């Protein structure tokens, strides 16, 4: 009986992460199709070099995420582990490029309509900080597969708001309630399903989900605060 339970859980995990990889890629494409992926076919303002590099590194991360899911599904664990160390190097590049891109965007006055660029900078900088913490935790738990892969799943949710916020015809007038609320709600639904399927709460998954949601609330609350604006001004001068 225990063997069947173990088999069922592994089968469920493989399905979960397959759909997560597909969903991550589709939402990223939907959000950035007009401003990046299909940009050569659309007459828009040329991208800055650092912005283009940011797009390339994030695309590489999405591809790596999907590749690692495929390797586990095909039971090629050895290659998955070797590629994982390349993932560490790529994660460092993602963070560094993301930080530089965020600062340069604020310095050049780039932000969604009506939002102070210095105030908005807390959003992408927060993405990089949260990603660094979650990815570091995933590496720490690399020998505990159930925790490792769920922490990496939350890193995917961490990167969804920028894509969700750019999807054409989405209810953008809702602002953070949409681009933060939709990924957070989806993450909580998956957390609930995961708990039900496995018969217990994965605490690493739960803590990571709560941490990400709290970070979203924190950024909204403090993006226009005096301490943050002073720090953002110092960072961009």
In short:
The protein is mainly α. Helix content is 79%, strand content 0%.
Report what the structure shows.
The protein has eleven helices and no strands. The protein is globular, with a radius of gyration of 18 Å. Helices cover 79% and strands 0% of the residues. The N terminus is likely disordered. The chain is an all-alpha fold.
Q: What are the secondary-structure elements, in order, as H or E?
A: HHHHHHHHHHH
Strand content: under 5%
Total number of β-strand segments? 0
Helix content percent band: over 70%
Span between termini: 64 Å
Q: Helical segment tally?
A: 11
Biggest beta sheet summary: none
Determine the oligomeric state from the structure. Answer: single chain
Low-confidence stretches: 1-5
Rg from Cα: 18 Å
Q: Judging from the principal axes of the Cα atoms, what is the shape?
A: globular
Structural class: mainly alpha
Round the mean pLDDT to the nearest integer and report it: 91
Helices and strands, with pairings:
Layout: H1 2-37, H2 49-73, H3 77-107, H4 117-120, H5 122-140, H6 145-158, H7 160-164, H8 176-179, H9 181-198, H10 203-222, H11 226-236
Helix pairs in contact: 1-2, 2-3, 3-5, 5-6, 5-10, 6-10, 9-10
Key features of this structure:
mainly alpha; globular; single chain; about 80% helix
């Amino acid at each position: 009986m225990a063997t069947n339970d173990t088999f069922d859980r592994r089968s469920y995990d493989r399905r979960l992460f397959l759909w997560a990889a597909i969903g991550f890629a589709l939402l990223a494409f939907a959000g950035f199709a007009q401003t990046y992926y299909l940009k050569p076919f659309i007459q828009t303002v040329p991208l800055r070099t650092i912005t283009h590099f940011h797009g390339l590194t994030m695309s590489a991360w999405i591809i790596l995420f999907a590749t690692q899911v495929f390797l586990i599904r095909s039971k090629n664990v050895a290659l998955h582990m070797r590629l994982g160390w390349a993932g560490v190097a790529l994660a460092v590049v993602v963070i560094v490029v993301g930080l530089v891109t965020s600062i340069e965007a604020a310095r050049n006055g780039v932000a969604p309509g009506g939002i102070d660029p210095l105030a908005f900078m807390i959003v992408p900088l927060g993405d990089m900080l949260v990603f660094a913490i979650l990815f570091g935790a995933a590496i720490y738990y690399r020998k505990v597969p159930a925790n490792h892969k769920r922490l990496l799943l939350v890193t995917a949710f961490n990167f969804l708001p920028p894509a969700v916020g750019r999807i054409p015809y989405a209810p953008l007038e809702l602002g953070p309630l949409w681009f933060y609320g939709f990924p957070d709600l989806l993450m909580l639904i998956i957390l609930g399903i995961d708990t039900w399927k496995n018969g217990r709460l994965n605490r690493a998954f739960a803590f990571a989900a709560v941490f990400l949601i709290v970070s979203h609330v924190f950024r909204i609350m403090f993006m226009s605060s005096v301490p943050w604006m002073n720090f953002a001004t110092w960072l961009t001068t």
